[in-house]
Design brief:
about 325 residues; alpha/beta; Rossmann fold; Glucose Oxidase, domain 1; 2 domains; seven-stranded mixed beta sheet; six-stranded mixed beta sheet; 15 strands; about 25% strand; globular
Amino acid sequence: MSFRKESGTLLPKKLKENATIGIVAPSYPILPEHLAELKPGEDFLADLGFKLVFAKNYLNNKLGYGNTPEEKADDINNMFLDKKIDAILCAQGGNSANSVLPFIKWDIIKANPKIFMGISDITVLLNTIYQKTGLITFHGNDSYMWGIYNSAKAYDKTEFLNRLVHGKKTITKLASWKTIRPGVAKGKLMGGNLNCILKLAGTKYFPDFSNSILFLEAYETTPEICFYLFHQMKQTGVFEKIKGVVIGYIYGLEHDKSNPYQMEDILLEVTKEYTFPILKINEFGHCCSNTVLPVGAEAHLDADKQIFKISDDFLI
């Protein structure tokens, strides 16, 4: 375990050859029809030489829309406690990951830091785990996205290995990036799915975004939804605290090429009185290739030069 006294940040260990990855389902339940969709992602990890262990309640669906929050949290707590588990991957997103937060044992996570990764609804866990424990977590593909969306594309595989096995800081570009608002910033990476971040608003789990570079994506959204969510962020004081924003691939707006309004346009309008830089990239989100972003790690953003990179160690 590595503990940075000056920042309180916990760095998990890199994935090694033949590492064991625990699979949990803290949001939408794993239904029988999902198993075939999840298998390509599981095969991808197995082909890389990793061993997979599935949580006790992985296939349970006690409530009809998932397990109880206590059972989901128990699976996470036990994966952190289990010395044989080297990293934890969430199987898929959904809508109910916030229900597990009161039952997570933060002291267990602090005492047993390890890689924890997911995307979409898992945003609530990635940011809250970092806030409550200082453990850097990882925004990246889950089993479902590797399976049904990407079939483990070469980019996703390379970024997964670069970040979690080799600890590389460079985010590989798939296409050119776009300056939305110029400027340069540095800060800790925080963010994920826009809707899911705001599930935490008004609760004791809402992150402190001070001195952060906020990265955002969304799945099925509209200009109006983006408009009201950004105003909610504004009213909660988020934009007063952050240093910059990176917007990823926004499926609900970008898959329709005729849509004249994109998330970055709406953010620019809602935050017109602010000066923080905004950069548009397409290397994270739904229905696209995904890099891996360490939540809580220091990052550098230069929107003028279209530079976005991790600037400090995030693994040991």
